[in-house]
């Protein structure tokens, strides 16, 4: 529901302006692991034309006839395995909130900056937080889609939603969006530090480390989405930073959905092949995920680890995402300050 606009007096005009909002936005998350919550979440997610580009005439019968009947139960069970029981929410939500709260503290000396967070699918919505920022006096908003590599299915759909929220406002804030940062040196340094730190806790050295990115359908890439090349750029710079050859840090793509061909090589097939080829020690990092979530905790730490052992591998490690770590916050704080230049 839209809040009634404040009366247009000079006092209200001053009160409702002069501040700068920073809105961190991640993908989203179901409110619970039960069937109804999962269905509501998947329905919103999989109805997004930026995510599923097929004709609605073809897709909706499949979505409503099959996917929304079968997938909520199956995926709900997977979410249960990785649910943050302490807060009764997904880790993606916990980390995103922590990131916003930690970033807000770094602006203690800049009280005109208000940091908030939202989800593209589920709660809190982008529109509700944009409105809240405006009510607090933000007449400029920096929207930060939390994806280091640009994809239309992630970055663009966040930006679409933010601009859609402005459609209904008479007095719009100025809006800036944060570009992807696949080669940012602070980001690359943070990934390298996180790998070194994590590997130092193991009593074994991996023969291969997979940099596993979320996939997209190959057709999206063929139509001009830069995502594939930005993932390769991140991996190339990370290799250079670590001084590793290409065989040691290999790029793969995970989380396929549907029957189409997706970006290759696939993570699940690569894990299986490496184990069958005699690789005994494997680690996986997810550089494209700002925070751990279902796709990293269940699909990689859980399923990929199991598959590696099942096919003859001996040691497997999942390197956590940057999350709300000091290195992770250094990246987010650096990008935000750079993008606020001229406003601050
Ligand atoms: C065609 C479908 C999908 C595309 C394209 C896609 C791209 C994409 N997704 C992420 C990041 C995340 N995806 C997550 C979950 C998830 N993704 C899809 C489908 C597509 N993603 C589905 C259906 C789901 C839900 C789970 C499932 O049903 O399998 C998540 C996790 C969210 C959580 O709450 O934990 C993230 C994060 C990226 C970065 C990306 C393209 C680059
Ligand atoms: Fe996804
Ligand atoms: Fe998945």
Automatic annotation (TrEMBL):
GO-annotated biological processes: heme biosynthetic process
Organism domain of life: Bacteria
Gene Ontology cellular component annotations, sorted alphabetically: cytoplasm
Cellular location(s): Cytoplasm
Alphabetical list of CDD domains matching this protein: Ferrochelatase_C, Ferrochelatase_N
Main subcellular location: cytoplasm
Annotated pathway: Porphyrin-containing compound metabolism; protoheme biosynthesis; protoheme from protoporphyrin-IX: step 1/1
EC number(s) given by UniProt: 4.98.1.1
Transmembrane parts of this sequence: none
Keywords: Cytoplasm, Heme biosynthesis, Iron, Lyase, Metal-binding, Porphyrin biosynthesis
Reaction catalysed by this enzyme: Fe-coproporphyrin III + 2 H(+) = coproporphyrin III + Fe(2+); heme b + 2 H(+) = protoporphyrin IX + Fe(2+)
Entry keyword Ribosomal protein: no
Similarity comment: family membership: Belongs to the ferrochelatase family.
Main function: Catalyzes the ferrous insertion into protoporphyrin IX.
Protein name listed in UniProt: Ferrochelatase
